[in-house]
Every structure is written in structure tokens, then in C-alpha cells.
Amino acid sequence: METNRRNFDRIDLTILRTLQRNAAQRLEDIARVTKLASSSVHERLRRLERDGVIRNWTINVDAELLGLGVLAYMGVIASKPCSELLQALGEVPAIEECHSVAGEWSMLLKVRTSSTAELLALSERLRQIPGIEGTTTTIVLKTHMDRPAPIPEIKREAGRKASR
Questions:
Q1: Could you tell me if 2 and 36 are in contact, meaning their C-beta atoms sit under 8 angstroms apart?
Q2: Domains in the chain with CATH codes
Q3: If residue 34 lies in a helix (H) or strand (E), which one and from where to where?
Q4: 112 CB-contact burial (10 Å; exposed 0-12 / middle 13-18 / buried 19+)
């Protein structure tokens, strides 16, 4: 599978890593880390947004503190193409992520609910959608790791000194 990976320099990747750790940092703080002027950091951020690398600025909330303590993954067996199910699935607020997958299932959903009773109701609701033939649910007991996509390292060419 070919990716649309673009070429980024060391500074772009440093900015992205810095923001992944804490997106609320001021331009001045990022400028200090990258040894650039704040205006240069601002220009790079706008370019990364324009190019679609930074897709949005958001927060990471604690779902349990919001009353959504049940996290589960649901495999969906479908008789229709995934693209025909997306509108109906998009209307279900409990679905955080929806992926087309290869294998036994057609789709894999990441869902959050307040209780197992609500999870059961969600499962029943999904099976009522025309084209969904069945679901398989796996409840998460504990999340040991939840991190953002890794930012790649820049590989140095042999015989070249690292630039500063």
C-alpha cells in the first residue's frame, strides 16, 4: 500500500512532536524549542494545516469522568458495502471510530457508553440498520496504552553531519 507521505524537515517534525505532547503551548515556547522566530513557527503551522498534516486542534477528555466508562470494540458483519452504512452509523453518537477492515468483519467500531446495558441497546440498535447482519462485541477492561500516531525520525544520510 502506497502512502501520501510528504517530505518534512527536522523542524516540522519537532513542531509536531512538541504539539503532540501539549497542543496548548504558546508560539514562543515552540520557537524556543525549534530555535526559530515565532513568526516562522506560525508560518510552518499554517502550512502544516493547509497541507492537511494538522487536521484539527482539539482536546483529549477523560470519558469516564463524563460518565462514559464502558469502552468496547464492535465487529460488524454487513451485507451492504461499508459506504452505504456510513450515514446511518454517523447518526450514532456512541461511535467514536469506524474502520473498514479485512477479515471476518466488514467494519470495526470503537464505541463508548455509560453502562453495559447501554452497550447492549447500542448493539441491538446497530442490528436494526438495514445491511448490518450481526455484531461481535469486545469490552475493554483496561487501556494500557493510548497514544497519538508516531512522528517519524529523519534519517541522516551516511557521511553527512547533522545540521543544527
A1: no
A2: 10-50 (1.10.10), 64-139 (3.30.70.920)
A3: helix 27-34
A4: buried
